Amino acid sequence: MVFKALLRLSVLLCILTASASAAPIRLKDLVEFDGVRTNDLVGYGLVVGLNGTGDGLRNAPFTEDIMTNILERLGVNVTGEQFRPNNVAAVIVTASLPPFSRAGSTLDVTVSAIGDANSLLGGTLIMTPLNAADGEIYAVAQGTIIAGGVTAQGQAAQVTQGVPTAGVIPSGAIVEREVDFDFSTLSHIRLALRTPDFTTAARIEQAINGSYGRAVARMLDAGTVQIDITATRQASPAHALGFIENIRVEPERRARVVVDQRSGTIVMGEDVRISRVAVSQGGLTLRIEEAPVVSQPNPFADGETIVVPRTAAGIEEEPGIGLAEIREGTSLSEVVAGLNALGVAPRDMIDILKSIKASGALHAEFIVR
Question: Is the dihedral of CA 335, 365, 320, 340 positive or negative?
């Protein structure tokens, strides 16, 4: 048997380099508007109609409690009754309430089992109130679940594909309460950059002021630009944002290298630069071979059969790259292209980039996942 201390894995190397001049991007894709946000909703409900794949009530007593409460609200007295169906399951229901949702609009909901149910396939969610963080009910969910997997089993084997204990109900919730937020009365609106950067914020300020021809926007910090709605001289904040969100701005990017060690993926930007540095890389392979020898006594002789171990060990040095010098100001994409031409494996390339960063020659934010 041969053991290798250094394994050569076949992985994907992905190098994404941005062009020297990035295309302008709509403002709505760069910022979040103050007050325009979603709200998370959550509820606790019961799924019925399962084909024997529900909760075991001995292991999930909370399922029996909610089932009893629902039946009593419907006028069925089950006090003291012993019933243990296997076609019901307790679930957590989640949804997101979009901004400006009005009463009567519908939401998609996600249903996830919290007991020991095997599958929610074919089940129906009973009317479930959905609460927000303030404890108020904003929507009510009900409907047939579309499960995300399937399970098949026999007496001695079981196979599962996907996740049958979770599913969705498209348009399964109806909004019953609106969020108390009067957007039309705002006199100032802040734009929150998804990636804070002083240069990008300054460009947003200049683009908005240039579009209006007067001082409408003011940069507060690297992540915030404030809009004076009254200075826009438009009918309402909605009209102002409808105009502002389509203004195109070229964002500034930070020099960054992202490495995923599990897949061997390397993602970098065009602005990454490397100072003058020398690189030398090689690898060692450890080989251990076991060839045991069986020793037996002569016929009719006293003795016992023994196994004598025989081990052959050796270390081989694999060819790597010799001492190579990288010039001042070389882009990282050029370095990676050169390493690829030399046949350096992605795993070794990641180690080289780590060492270059540790030496202080890689001028970029280095992120390892």
Answer: negative
Half-sphere exposure of residue 77, counting CA atoms within 13 Å on the CB side?
Answer: 1
In this structure, are residues 276 and 327 in contact, taking their beta carbons and an 8 Å threshold? Answer: yes
- 150 within 8 A of 166, measured Cβ to Cβ: no
The C-alpha angle 205, 210, 211, rounded to 5 degrees, equals: 105
pLDDT digits (tens, 9 = 90+) for 316-365: 555 555 545 555 556 666 777 766 666 667 677 777 778 878 888 778 88
pTM: 0.66
Residue length of the chain: 369
For the stretch 233-246, pLDDT in tens is: 888 888 998 999 99
Closest CA to 188 of 159, 230, 223, 157: 230
- Report the alpha-carbon distance of residue 18 to residue 265 in Å, rounded: 16
- Tokens describing residue 53: 């794949």
Amino acid type, 83: F
Task: Show Cβ contacts of residue 34 under 8 Å, excluding neighbours closer than 6 positions.
Answer: 189, 190, 191, 192
